[in-house]
Specification:
Distance between the termini: 39 Å
Number of domains: 1
CATH architecture: 3-Layer(aba) Sandwich
Strand content: 15-25%
Shape: globular
Structural class: alpha/beta
CATH topology: Rossmann fold
CATH superfamily: Vaccinia Virus protein VP39
Length: 251
C-alpha cells in the first residue's frame, strides 16, 4: 500500500499513462475543469479556493486565472508536495484547513473548486455547507465526483479483491492503486445535496466511458469506441455508466 507521499507523483503520471483509455479518462476530466475555470474567471474574477487539491493538478490554472488563490487541504503530504507550485505562483497560498470546520473567513471567495474530494468524506452535507459559507453571494462552486454506478467504479470494486489486483497491475504495466472511494453518490443524490446546501445548479455534465476489457486490451481503437459510446449515452438514462459527474453551481 502506497503512502500519500508516494501516491502523489503516481497520480500525476495518470495523465501520461501508456494505456489510451486511462490517459483519456483523466485528461478529459482535467481539460473540462480547466476550461470551465477559465470561463468562470471571466465571469467572476477575484479570489478562488480549491478544497482538497491533492496532487495540485489545477493549481497552476487557478493561479493564472484568479487574482489570489488559496489551496486548502488537510493532508500535510499534499501541502508539502504543492510547495514547488507556490514557488512559481506568488498569488497562491497553501492552507491546512478542514472544510467541515473551516477557520477561513466567510464569503471570501468568488469561486470554489472541489474536484474528486467528496467521495472520500462521509457526510457530504457538511462539506457542501462549508463551501457555501466560504463563497460570496453569487459565487460559483465547480464540483466533480465519480458516479456511484459507473462502470469504472463497479470494475474497481472487483479489481481490488484479493488475488485480482496483482493481475490488473500486470495488465496495465504501471501503478494501479485503490482510491478508497467510500462516499459515492448518484447524480440525483448529488443534486439533492447541492440544493439542500443552498446552491442553484447552473450546469451539469458527465464524462468517462470505461468498458472493461475494451479499455485494457483495445488500445487506441478501444478508446475511440468508448468515446463514441460516451457521446451517445450522455444526456440519456444510461449516462449513469459514465465515470464522472460535474456541476457548476451558484451560491
Amino acid at each position: 500500500m502506497e503512502t500519500e507521499s508516494e501516491l502523489l507523483p503516481l497520480l500525476e503520471t495518470l495523465y501520461e499513462s501508456s494505456n489510451p483509455t486511462r490517459r483519456w479518462l483523466h485528461c478529459t476530466r482535467r481539460d473540462w475543469i480547466v476550461g470551465k475555470l477559465r470561463q468562470c474567471a471571466r465571469e467572476r474574477p477575484g479570489r478562488a479556493i480549491e478544497i482538497g487539491f491533492g496532487a495540485g493538478v489545477y493549481l497552476p490554472a487557478l493561479a493564472e486565472c484568479f487574482t489570489a488563490v488559496v489551496a486548502s487541504d488537510l493532508d500535510q503530504a499534499h501541502l508539502d508536495h504543492a510547495r514547488a507550485i507556490t514557488a512559481k505562483f506568488p498569488n497562491l497560498e497553501l492552507v491546512r484547513d478542514d472544510i467541515t470546520d473551516s477557520r477561513l473567513p466567510a464569503h471570501g471567495f468568488s469561486l470554489a473548486l472541489c474536484s474528486e474530494v467528496i467521495e472520500h468524506i462521509p457526510g457530504t452535507e457538511r462539506v457542501l455547507a462549508g463551501i457555501r459559507r466560504l463563497l460570496e453571494p453569487g459565487g460559483i462552486l465547480l464540483l466533480s465526483t465519480p458516479q456511484r454506478w459507473s462502470l469504472m467504479e463497479m470494475a474497481a470494486r472487483l479489481a481490488f479483491l484479493p488475488g485480482i489486483v496483482g493481475i490488473v497491475r500486470r495488465i496495465y504495466g504501471e501503478a494501479v492503486f485503490d482510491m478508497e472511494h467510500t462516499n459515492l453518490m448518484t447524480a440525483r443524490e448529488t443534486e439533492r445535496q447541492l440544493r439542500s446546501a443552498g446552491f442553484r445548479i447552473r450546469e451539469r455534465y458527465k464524462s468517462g466511458m470505461y468498458i472493461p476489457m475494451v479499455a485494457e486490451f483495445g488500445g487506441e481503437r478501444g478508446r475511440k469506441f468508448e468515446e463514441w459510446v460516451e457521446r451517445r449515452v450522455r444526456g440519456h438514462a444510461l449516462d449513469s455508466m459514465l465515470w464522472t459527474q460535474y456541476y457548476v453551481a451558484e451560491a
